[in-house]
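I had to read the description of the data format several times before I understood it. For illustration, here is how one protein appears when written out as sequence plus structure tokens:
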Amino acid sequence: MPLSDMAEKTAALEAGRRVLRLEAQALNDLAESLGRTFSEAVDRISALKGRLVLSGMGKSGHIARKIAATLASTGQPALFVHPGEASHGDLGMIGNDDAVLALSKTGETRELADIIAHTRRFDIPLIAITADAASALGRAADILLLLPDAPEAVDAFNAPTTSTTLQLALGDALAVALIERRGFSAQDFRVFHPGGKLGAALRTVGELMHGGDAMPLTRLDTPMPEALLVMTEKRFGCVGVVDEAGKLAGVITDGDLRRHMDGLMSLKTRDVMTRCPATVSPSLLAGEALRRMSGRITVLFVVEDQRPVGVLHIHDLLRQGVA
């Protein structure tokens, strides 16, 4: 490799590391600076009867859109209003029960002026994310989330880099604090993410399992020839064994058959079954069920009060795109 090419690659690597370290330090400074106003912002947002309206211009606008999307997907009604469009009619999207979260590093973005004035006129709570408390946005805000004084990653000019990273991280911090405040669960999350791999992983075992007559079940004292017929008919590669009370006492798999090959047809299910098999509940997330199917486990019985209510095969999970 020519020396010039090597020097360029080395310089690129050094630049990348420098930027990441600079932004990491700024994030640490932001974490240390959080205080009362952050808690006030969480209190105000969680108590809203309406929506949280986010706005920003340029790169701050892109970050505001992402924060709005994160909040909306985690149970906090939120939307983005472009400040330019707000001045031409979209102010009507901001209601009296809403609050506004405005982003601007300098706090002097003139396109935000009409939104700021609208919040003051109609007594709509205004939360600001800015690096300048003395700016127009900082002075107008009811709650000020102040960014630390951190340099942008570009030495020659102040291209939004570190500041937008801080805005994004602060938005994530608000979202997570709100999630924990309201006890938002994985099941709740799935309501807003029904599609794709994430949606599949957040489905429950009860939605994917085979129940009723589809379950391969037999009794404790069933002769093995009869148990093998059930096992073959149901095509799960196993059969569950229930006791007199209808509780799952064990499971017979192909491995159990191989271990009892000698004299198998003269035995009964209680002689062959594996006792205390791995089971799952109908409410378990599909993604977690897949994690439990480690090693040689390909089928799990689904139980409630120790009674089988369904059976789940690893193929059921794979077909749904859980893996």
Notes: The mean pLDDT is 89. Residues 205-319 form a domain with the CBS-domain fold (CATH 3.10.580.10).
